[in-house]
Specification:
mainly alpha, 18 helices
Length: 409
């Protein structure tokens, strides 16, 4: 069942009441252009850190103030929305703004006017912009159009995370919400334990998947058709040009921003599937991914800034849908806040567990055996949170009782 509640930004008889707001998706790269001018006109060095301030502080506050989105596209508008090129240009324009901002940053890193701490702040700002750029690449990489797939690889160049193009589409979407997926976080697993596991596991999976694809086509690894090598070549070209123009002094800052961009992506992965597990079919296979296998949030501002990434349940259930057609579903488990807020919570494991573990338990009606549990903590979690079958809460209020009783988790 989909959600159809209040309307924001226009009449409900319009195919997309939020249509004028989608240009806000260009805020992330746009803010990457501003640090030098803001510092120049205000004299405050804090603006070198503008992207983390906006994403980790300003957007969570605005998400809370503005509230829920509350509108879904109508099925009769699906084709017209999908074919409306305005939405495509919102993703296309992200790229030139992103790379102009990086060019300005490289010029500033190469100079002697800034202190090291200011250059570091600018690198962190570029990293947050790069991480959100991966989200633009995520949207483009799901499309069948040749141009958009190439643009996805270009968008990944700044973060040096080109293997994501392969792993996300052919690995994560096939194995999501199962123990075999390195990008699906497990109940009891902290963000800091998840990050090395997903980075290493995702890289290995991408290489394996691309090797298999090339072998089926009778091609070797060092083929021009290797999607991973194509994406990595774009990173080498980008970084090579910047180093040739501005010198090797900028290399540490390029690496810092790339690591932060990748870490931001994987932190969002941590949030999107934490503790969720697909059903096993009688034949032992995993059930088809449903909206119940991804965490959802429908905060309006972050919806627009992240191209509806928060409507993640519909994205996994229907990966062919373009971002403007994604729907919020009552079947999907709901996060208590927008992604920006949840990133802050995820960085503090005790706080994250206090907020999210009871919600995982409630989603499975108090039966923790239905969750995707971290193997090293499985015995302890089952012992603490899996009462005998006769004692498990049942009925329409079982989820609420599970949340109340989960304070001892």
């Amino acid at each position: 069942m989909t959600v159809q509640s209040r309307v924001f930004g226009g009449r409900r008889d319009k195919p997309d009441p939020k249509r004028p707001l989608w240009v806000l998706s260009l805020l992330a790269p746009g803010f990457g252009l501003l640090p030098s001018q803001l510092v120049l006109h205000t004299g405050s060095a804090v603006f070198w850190w503008i992207e983390p301030i906006i994403i980790l502080i300003v957007i969570p506050v605005l998400d809370w103030m503005i509230g829920e989105d509350g509108t879904n596209p109508r099925e009769e508008d699906y084709e017209s929305l999908s074919n409306d090129r305005y939405y495509r240009w919102c993703t296309y324009l992200f790229l030139p703004i992103q790379f102009i901002a990086l060019l300005i940053a490289a010029y500033l890193w190469a100079g002697d006017e800034l202190a090291v701490v200011d250059k570091l702040g600018l690198a962190v700002t570029m990293g947050f912009m790069s991480g959100i750029g991966i989200n633009a690449a995520h949207e483009l990489g799901h499309r069948v159009e040749h141009l958009e797939r190439w643009l996805a690889k270009i968008a990944l160049a700044q973060s040096a995370y080109g293997h994501f193009y392969v792993e996300h589409n052919r690995g994560h979407h096939a194995r999501v919400a199962t123990p075999e997926d390195p990008a699906s976080a497990r109940l009891g697993e902290s963000l800091w334990a998840f990050l090395p596991r997903t980075v290493v596991g995702g890289f290995r999976s991408a290489v394996h998947l691309e090797q298999e694809r090339l072998q089926r086509k009778g091609l070797r690894w060092w083929s021009s058709q290797n999607n991973i090598l194509q994406a990595w070549a774009m990173t080498l070209a980008l970084f090579g040009v910047l180093l040739a123009v501005f010198g090797w002094a900028i290399l540490p800052y390029l690496l810092v921003q790339a690591v932060i961009g990748a870490a931001l992506l994987e932190t969002v992965n941590y949030i999107e599937h934490y503790g969720l597990l697909r059903r096993r079919l009688p034949n032992g296979r995993w059930a088809r991914c449903s909206p119940a296998d991804s965490w959802n949030s429908d905060r309006l501002l972050t919806n627009v800034v992240l191209f509806h990434l928060q409507r993640h349940s519909d994205h996994h259930a229907n990966p062919g849908r373009r971002y403007q057609t994604l729907r919020s579903s009552q079947e999907a488990p709901q996060l208590p806040a927008g992604y920006a807020t949840m990133i802050v919570l995820a960085a503090v494991p005790p706080l994250w567990r206090r907020v999210m573990d009871p919600r995982v338990l409630a989603h499975y009606d108090g039966d923790v055996t239905r969750a995707n549990i971290a193997p090293r903590k499985r015995g302890r979690i089952l012992a603490a949170h899996n009462p005998p079958a006769a004692a498990r809460p049942r009925g329409p209020n079982s989820g609420a009782r599970a949340v109340r009783s989960a304070g001892r988790w």
